[in-house]
Amino acid sequence: MLGNRFYKVIRKNNLNLPMKIAILSEDASLYSTKRLKETGEARSHDIKVINYLRCYINIASHKHSIISLHQPLENFDAIIPRIGALRTFYGTAVVRQFEMMGVFSVNQSQAISRSRDKLRCLQILARHGIGLPVTGFAHDTEDIDGLIETVGGAPLVIKLLEGTQGIGVVLAETYQAAKSVIEAFRGLNANILVQEYIKEAKGADIRCFVVGDKVVAAMKRQGAEGEFRSNLHRGGKAEGIKLTPEERSTAVRSANAMGLKVAGVDLLRSNHGLVIMEVNSSPGLEGIEKATGVDVADKIIEFIEKNAATAKTTDRIKY
Ligand SMILES: Nc1ncnc2c1ncn2[C@@H]1O[C@H](COP(=O)(O)OP(=O)(O)OP(=O)(O)O)[C@@H](O)[C@H]1O
Ligand SMILES: [Mg+2]
Ligand SMILES: [Mg+2]
């Protein structure tokens, strides 16, 4: 068996060699996992689905390893992390361990952690001058009036920082409703975000699927009748959409700012221009492939083929 470093040197000169790729996923039967596996195999790679929650990590200065089902995971060229929203802590530790072993990860562990925290995500995007909805953050403020004022009063959107699939995202139509919801979240000791309501988006948002430096597919998601949240899990419907050049470049810039190579960038068309709502590090493939007909899994495998041998595993973003 060739050592990883030696193998990489050979690969640099011959990018068509089959690779050994691990998909880190809790469930091999998920649509995204299945599609990545079958596409990778169709391109002649050896694809293993590994349940990262079942792995254990051996940390030593000279020989780091990861053990799954009693076997050390060795000689992988690349990993595709598909870390569940509730598994960020352990999932990113496993990704980090692969990085320490010199394995190329489609998304770096630090970038995944960064994107999982909505506050950190919006702070990074703001720092890069990317358009955002006017947003306030709070934990236990006594000054609820001031917080509501910062986003221009009701109607406004209140979000739990750790929410996903639209759960924990509330539209408060009146000042009184906003105040009660903020007080309720405060009582639960939760971190919250208060955001201007982009009414003109009319319950729709746009998901841009970024791979490398390109948007490979984009869809418009429209919320169910009477629902302001467009999430497919909340009954939204999706269709392919043509982006403006500005939307394309902003989606790519947002993924870059987060340090993500594969990302689902969600944007809204507002009266004051386009605004980014969030950047997801394990975007699902089912909705986007079905709505657009684009083979997104193939784009991801192709990205690995082009980058696994030459990429550096060190993450240069320092915050
Ligand atoms: N400020 C806003 N103005 C208008 N609509 C909004 C706003 N914020 C969120 N929405 C709607 O609510 C949906 C859910 O919000 P958001 O994406 O922030 O939540 P989430 O729980 O993180 O979802 P995801 O599963 O995409 O991670 C959005 O897709 C959008 O349609
Ligand atoms: Mg989210
Ligand atoms: Mg979202």
TrEMBL record:
Keyword Magnesium among record annotations: yes
Enzyme's top EC category: ligase
Domain ATP-grasp residue range list: 122-305
Cofactor note: Binds 2 magnesium or manganese ions per subunit.
One Gene Ontology term from the biological process aspect of the record: translation
Protein species of origin: Crocosphaera watsonii WH 0003
Enzyme Commission number, as recorded: 6.3.2.-
Binding positions for Mn(2+) 1 per the UniProt entry: D266, E278
Protein name: Probable alpha-L-glutamate ligase
Gene3D superfamilies named among the record's database cross-references: 3.40.50.20, ATP-grasp fold, A domain (3.30.1490.20), ATP-grasp fold, B domain (3.30.470.20)
Top-level taxon in the UniProt lineage: Bacteria
Protein family: In the C-terminal section; belongs to the RimK family.
Residues annotated to bind Mg(2+) 2: E278, N280
Binding positions (Mn(2+) 2): E278, N280
Keyword Repeat: no
